[in-house]
Write a structure and sequence with these properties.
The structure holds four protein chains of four kinds.
Chain A lengths: L1 H17 L4 H6 L5 H11 L5 H13 L13 H36 L4 H15 L2 H15 L15 H34 L2 H8 L4 H38 L5 H10 L3 H29 L7
Helix pairs in contact in A: 1-12, 5-6, 5-8, 5-10, 5-12, 6-8, 7-8, 7-10, 8-10, 9-10, 10-11, 10-12, 11-12
Chain C lengths: L27 H15 L1 H18 L1 H4 L31 H37 L1 H15 L3 H12 L3 H29 L1 H8 L4 H37 L11 H9 L6 H29 L6
Chain D lengths: L5 E12 L2 E13 L4 E5 L6 H9 L7 E10 L2 E2 L5 H5 L6 E4 L13 H12 L4 H14 L5 H4 L9 H13 L5 E5 L7 H18 L2 E6 L2 H5 L4 E6 L2 E7 H6 L4 H9 L39 H5 L14 E2 L23
Parallel strand pairs in D: 3-8, 3-9, 6-7, 7-8
Antiparallel strand pairs in D: 1-2, 1-4, 4-5, 9-10, 10-11
Helix pairs in contact in D: 3-4, 3-6, 4-6, 6-7
The chains are: A mainly alpha, B alpha/beta, C mainly alpha, D alpha/beta.
Chain lengths: 302, 333, 308, 342
Amino acid sequence: MIPVLIGVTLVISSVVYLSPGNPAQIALGQNANPEAIEELEAEMGLNDPPHVRYLDWLAGAAQGDLGTSVRSQRPVSEMIMERLPATLELAIASMALTLIIALPLGVISAVKQYTWVDSLSMVFAIFWISMPSFWLALILILLFSVNWSIFPISGRATPVFTATWLMSLALPAIATGTRRAGLLTRMTRSSMLEILNEDYIRTARGKGIGDRAVIYTHAMKNAMIPIITLIGLQIPLIFSGAVIIETVFAWPGMGRLLVNAVLSRDYPVVQGTVLVYAVIVIAANLAVDVAYSYFDPRIKYD
Amino acid sequence: MSLQRTQDAESTDALLAAEEVQKYFPIRSGILKRHTADVKAVDGVSFEIRRGETLGLVGESGCGKSTLGKTMMRLLDPTGGRIYFDGEDITDVSRKRLRQLRRDMQIIFQDPGSSLNPRMNVADLITEPMRSLTDWDKTKRQNRLYELIEEVDLQENHLTRAPHEFSGGQQQRIAIARALSVNPSLIVADEPTSALDVSVQAKILNLMEDLQEKYNLTYLFISHDLSVIKHICDRVAVMYLGELAEVAPADRLFETPKHPYTRALLSGVPRANAERMDDRIILDGSVPSPEDPPSGCRFHTRCQEYIGDVCETSDPELDAVGDGHVCACHHYD
Amino acid sequence: MSVGHSDSDDDEGDGTPKGGQGSRVATGQLARARTVLRRVMQNRFAVFGLVVVVALLVTAAFAPWIAPYEPTEQNYDALKEPPSLEHPFGTDTYGRDVFSRVVFGSRYAVFLGVVIVGIEMLIGVSLGLLAGYYGGWTEAGIMRLVDISLSIPAIVLALAIAGMLGGGLFPLIVAVSLVGWRGFARLVRGDVKSVMEEEYIESANAAGLSDFRVITRYVLPNAASSIIVYATLTIPTVILWSAGLSFLGMGVQPPKPEWGAILAAGRGDIDSAWWIATFPGLAIMLTVIGFNGLGDGLRDALDPRQVR
Amino acid sequence: MTDPLLEIDDLHVHFHTEEGTVEALDGVSLTVERDEVVGVIGESGCGKSVTAFSTMGLLQSPPAEVVSGSIRYDGRELLDLSDDELDGIRGDDITMIYQDPMSSLNPVLTIGHQLTEPLLAHRDISKAAARQKAIEMLEACGLADAERLMDEYPDALSGGMRQRVVIAMALITEPKLLIADEPTTALDVTIQAQIMDLLRDLREEFEMSVLIISHDLAVISEIADRMAVMYAGNVVETCSMRELFEAPLHPYTRKLAESIPSLETSVQRLPTIEGTVPELIDPPTGCRFASRCPDYIGSECDEIDPQLAEPEGIRDHEVACHYYTDESDAEPPWQIQGVEDQ
């Protein structure tokens, strides 16, 4: 865990270090006088060698200090904390949506392989996979917000856990979740098919215990293991998708913060956001590992 | 001729000799992949193969017979002990010398379906060792190729085909031709017929015998099938959990097996039309893990002739019990 | 494959004995290609994919002859006109013909898809090969790099790289390539490791082959089909990512007719001129479906053991 | 005389593959009487496992298709039953032991769960009683510490132990017919001896009929009363165990037995069968062994598919070979000098 995190910070810092442009200049604007820029450079530690700058930043990050935004002059950690809940809401909502759609559909397709149910759900899956999420988002806005006025066009309604909040979350969650749902449906189907071809499934059928028991007890429990891996792989992708969707729906999350920071070359904010994203992903993967040991008794013997 | 425990390789007509050969596979565990234990696949094995003979190496799965075979021809690096080929110590020869040695030592594997590169055709498969191990020119290689396919009973129109287009028996013929191409003197045959049907097995065994006679080949024949071993081998070594239990000329071993393990193994062979199993020895349990083998004699946990503490405390050595017959058992001390 | 898991030594599993001399399987590489093509043609989705991909390539190649207007030609007499015979996909806020822009956009899709996947493949396959073949510290180091890369969400990393490099075509290529190689690396390492477990590698060692020869004659050919399939299936992802970054303003810049950029430009007019954003979106979707179909078909055709 | 327990009659099974239709079973007929052990022997691809799976209704379709024939168990036609109806019989009256103990147990369910499943499905029994019965059955199968094993997962067990669990699972409902498909092929010699010993004891204890399938003649000979020899989708010979060794009739049976090296006899050179097994996609007409047959007698071998029949003067011994029919003017082997004493 720790080496990976340190690696992540190295990657981000190198990207920032190698980027063209002078942060001090950016902070003060095009017409700032050279002395002021020099002064700020010294203050920001821009004249230090790269490894010193990196270690300083790392030391700060370890204590929760991610530096100060060049643009707004506010502490980066504070800006991120403001945005974090919105991002997590969206990620969890779209993940839930993904699972609710994908797992049953994938399992049914596999069990009813070669039937119209299977074909239909695969056609749907392919559509979802192939639709660019930002385009889907625009279509959703056009239909549900502009034409039919069911959902708000954009923004996040507060306070949370209210009906209006849920309405504002609906379209972004759908736009983020569908592609993932398409992929997970197909993957669930093929894991399930693989399991259904295993010898022990035949053994179970041979016991005359009926299809339901064979599928729900014998196949599902085994299929959960590869499916959990797949879910683990989906987590960073959900965040990826959310970055663009947050922008389209003006959803006040970290993704939008990042996009704006990148466009305005606000390096400390970029650095901080990427780090927080990595921490979330790593934590989520840890949770997946824990879920494994619940479903796979073999882990104990390793 | 009596067989001593340690061989003086130069003084006999041994083509290949092992002296206390060990092969351990490290087990790494934990996040740091620390070396925590060893699978002692081969643990102190000494024997010799004489020029022109077929030595059978028999044992159950996981006993280390395959590992021993591959270590003997240096496809695996031994953890300890020495290996002699034709009197020369080849335990740690240079890469260059090892390549030269490959011309003399070749191997045939159990499953020809997986030992032949599926992306190559038959002609390439057979000529490849010649190309990399000899300095023969193209004509010479081609001539040898045609000679070989005739030898193993393949046809010219097979040459451009891929291995998966052949039956198991034919694939094994291709593998034999490949091994034979560089004129080796020793062939390690690692369960060469276990993946084949009995009627095909008979043909492959016959072919191997014919080739042995014609090219004066020496075989190390590894198998778990005692009937096959009896049919084809001159001498037999019985392996249990990384060690040799007994070595003897084939007829002696099958007539008067000494080691309790050998006897159990032999009586366990299903016998067609036999006077049934009144005297059958059924061993309890299964083979212990080579990661943590039993102390003393490794067989003591399942032995029907267990004679007391000595079996648990001291590891018996291979001692002579008759003409060219050695056995590692305290029972005979 | 559970049909007749019959006999221990019957590796075909369906009870078909191999016929030896009478074998009906065609011979040689050409025949192999023919078999693959036949299998692809049996799969309707794959055929559809093939048709779409071919159509895309043709469009990209002959864009100037297919498009009725210059993609950047502005016409202030025809602003935001809805689709008509004259402008099948309508016109945008500058009066540019959306159809022509979408047609020229196919060039970006093909170019970005092929170039980026090519770079990813070069990096990923080499690293994966090194990791899988040599193992040990080489492998540990490379896989750690993959782990690091995997813990940053792809778009986040690509965005940071592209944005910091200043936007445009070249930064886009660099950013997406630097993010995407890891998939190839993981795949190839896994494949190489399983190939290395095969008995034919021991057989190659017994034949005294050099590392180079083992890699080129044994390892790569046996990993090739999964690399080809993965590459085909990565192209649509790359196209989606590129369009996404351009949509955010961090990739290809307007007025260049890249699909993501056209879409972004039409975003504000979604209520008054739906066609500007809709058609490039459809183009992306069709392209992605096409490559996915082709990739799926190839996977099934190259590896018949795969569950269909 | 009562009906046989299992009667397979003229069973044809095809597999639809990409390369074409594999005619895997070409009119297989086989009977298992009550309290009888029948062995089926043949080389890979001969259809012996397909026969077993057809009986259990476990062939996967597609690609498999039962084209024609009948499988009657205790007078009931199994092929006419729906899956639900079949579930009333399989796992209860007919059970099966599989070849590979490593893959035939579910890795994520406890031994206890898998073992009690058939009882709970087929008997009106409490969970506690089922558990008790399962423990008894594990002990009967020679597994010590059964109580603890019940809560273990298959991964904690060795191959030999797993096969004992599979056997316990098959016997827990005290079936009338046990089908054992290569029960020892995946095991080592010493473990194989243990398992065959166990099977023999259990069969006597439970008085069940057994259909045992193997490629290893010697293994079957240890337990079977009667044998069926299969070749390329046909049963070519059925007879008592004794007859098979003392007076085999079909040329294939004779050649097959000769080509197996044995511990008792030694030969300089193993006799072999010429040629290879024919492809079952578009197989040859007539006798499928004709092209390899040492006793080939002419065009009728190529044209007419021989049917299982008792040759004149021989009882309880059926063979599918034109050599033994009235029309044939060849000399049957028992009349030829020297064949008996092989």
